[in-house]
Design brief:
The chain is about 70% helix and about 0% strand. It is a multi-pass membrane protein.
């Protein structure tokens, strides 16, 4: 045997180390399976099950009844209005924060506040708006006593369609700012410099360069805001009780067990909501993938 042989370099491939980093994802996968995937399968099965336990399409056909169709249309209109206004207002706010040349501490403060406000909903948000824009709210009384103007004399009500839209904007605008900021940061200064060197004005740059680049991101954010508003329940039920018949409230009534108790119809309602939200999120993902081409 040759004693000069290097034993550490020639005796086959090194043993493979078992990578255990994926174990960190186990709690998330388990949580998602228990509280997302399994319930969805349960809802789908329940939507096609009759009171006697057999297969039926009656629950899905029931979604076409005038009352339920009206609830879906009301939810869609409310979601579209809050998403459209939230998209425009959030985009202008993000433009001012990202491209407006503001001090860094203002940008950090607004971004931090947006992270909190985008998750502020439910009973606390409803109470905050009642204390602000209710009939005896701070802003309502201030306008009445200082300017002699009663905002409720115009027909406005916090518990009406547009009152709910204004309430939704509290979390829609911050969410828009957070999700559109990376797209605005992706606008390269070289693009504006090249446009200006060719004689383009500011509006021409935005019309021919900025807007086409941002369009997929803005449309994707609009769909995300639409899905966010469509599934809101706690805020609207805290403000209006069960008097504003959007789909989440109708679903709540079917599941909760009052006079409208019909859990299988409730499962069908939930399935209809899931299909609308899945379609919105899939379009959002597709548009986001298209927009990310410009951020590389």
């Amino acid at each position: 045997m040759d004693g000069s042989r290097d034993l550490t370099a020639t005796d086959g491939p090194a043993p493979r180390r078992l990578n255990l980093d994926w174990l960190g994802a186990v709690p998330f996968i388990g949580f998602s399976a228990l509280f997302l995937i399994v319930p969805v399968f349960y809802l789908v099965a329940g939507a096609f099950t009759g009171p006697e336990g057999g297969f039926t399409l009656d629950n899905m056909i029931g979604l076409t009844s005038p009352e339920i169709a009206s609830s879906f249309w009301l939810s869609i209109r409310l979601s579209l209005a809050s998403a459209l206004i939230g998209t425009l207002a959030g985009l202008l706010l993000a433009h001012a924060i990202v491209l407006g040349g503001m001090p860094g501490w203002i940008r950090r403060s607004v971004t931090t506040f947006s992270g909190v406000a985008s998750n502020f909903a439910g009973v606390p948000l409803a109470f905050a708006f009642i204390a602000t824009l209710g009939r005896l709210g701070l802003v309502t009384v201030l306008f009445r006593q200082v300017f002699g103007f009663d905002i409720y004399s115009t027909g406005f009500s916090l518990f009406s369609f547009w009152g709910l839209v204004i309430t939704y904007l509290y979390f829609q605008m911050p969410l828009m700012l957070l999700v559109i900021t990376p797209a605005l940061e992706g606008l390269k200064p070289e693009w504006r410099e090249a446009a200006e060197s060719l004689g383009a004005s500011g509006p021409q740059y935005w019309t021919m360069v900025g807007a086409p680049v941002l369009a997929p991101s803005v449309m994707g954010c609009f769909l995300l805001l639409f899905a966010n508003a469509f599934g809101t329940l706690a805020t609207i039920i805290a403000l209006t009780g069960s008097n504003f018949s959007v789909v989440p409230i109708l679903l709540f009534q079917q599941i909760r067990g009052n006079v409208l108790y019909n859990p299988n119809l409730g499962y069908a309602l939930a399935l209809g909501m899931i299909l609308i939200m899945v379609a919105s999120n899939l379009l959002y993902i597709a548009l986001r993938a298209r927009a990310e081409r410009w951020q590389k």
